Known about the structure:
It is a single chain. By secondary structure, the chain is mainly α. It has one domain (2-189, 212-411): Up-down Bundle (Growth Hormone, Chain: A), CATH 1.20.1250.20. The protein has 18 helices and 2 strands. A two-stranded antiparallel ribbon has the order 1-2. Strand 1 and strand 2 (379-380) form a beta hairpin. It is globular.
Amino acid sequence: MAQENSARGGWAIFAVFGAAFVLSQFFRALNGLSAKDLGVEFDLSPAGLGALTGFFFVAFGLAQIPTGVLLDRFGPRRSVGLMLLIAVIGAVLYGLADNLALLYLGRVLQGVGFAGVLMGALMLFARWFPPDRFGTWMGRMVALGGAGGLLATAPLALVAENWGWRVACYGGALLTLAAALLVYSIARDAPSDSTRDGRRPEPWRQSLAGVGAAIRTPRLGPILAMCLVSYPINISLIGLWAAPYLMDSHGLDRESAGTYLLAMAVALIAASLLIGPLERRLDTRKWLSIACALIVLSALIVLAATPAMPLWLAAALLTLIGGASCYNVVLAGHARSLFPDRLAGRGMALVAIALMGGPAIMQFASGVIADQFPHEGARLDPEGYRAVFGFFAFSIVLSLAAYWPVADARPSQGFADSNI
Length: 420
């Protein structure tokens, strides 16, 4: 009976946190198909669009350490439920913006408000499910969140064409408010037979000291280096570069480009559902991550090295990147294996800084690179896109060099404290 109740509670957590994660993914990718409108309305260059899009991830990353402290001290239910209200305010301000300052403020508040959703869910998965199922549940979470990515492809293109991108912001704000209420009212921070729900919060001084302990965790640095390129490169393509590339270099309209982004998002969803069971079957996290990274690297090299590429090949390579980028699921499990439960929130916050701060770095740097090539407003020369793909490929090479020597963390070995 206890096991049945635990499974039911775990599914409830997955459902409500998943709903919030869907909205987080939607707002991350919102600018992909709104880029042309934003560029015209606010006179933004490619670098300006990259900076605006990246501010979500800057705010998200900067919020991670205080969010990790809150998660460990007060639990995911209260912390995430209240933080989502900040995202609601950010979405409304973004839709109302009539100047760049308000636009940036809305983007920042969105990043802060969604900062605890995925890490809070991962904390709870580690408590409600066996350690060797962590990758499976995170994969399901990422796949569910991919629905948010789907909303920001063809459906967003349809809404933007008929009602404008601001309407999408207001709709997202209402749905985020509903998700906040669900998280706060339904989620539980631990199974009923656990001692954690009754555990007294750490003193603030001890909470802050735990941040340093998490940062000093051995083998964490190289894993974070890989996190900087796994999800960040994929979301930089879906959320910023892929649609303009298809429109500028292959002559597609926005709705057609949105269809190809939809294929990238569907590939990521499918792969995220498969990679958890594959990780458990192969009993390796390190080598599965490396294999996926090499696939993405190969596709980027072809995109960067091939001028006048046919549309079918470009679409196939972008879809391949979308699917193979699911290895952030495996990297999160690799990192979680290093932390005891008392440091889980702060430790996974460091992973989130890399996963969500990475897009800010990638989008800002790629925007600066793109600006070095001929462009007219937000329209970029094909050579500029090839340079962006080359930059992404070089980033993966550097991260692989750091990660390759790290010891594996097999799913069958559990976490740092598997008595959870």
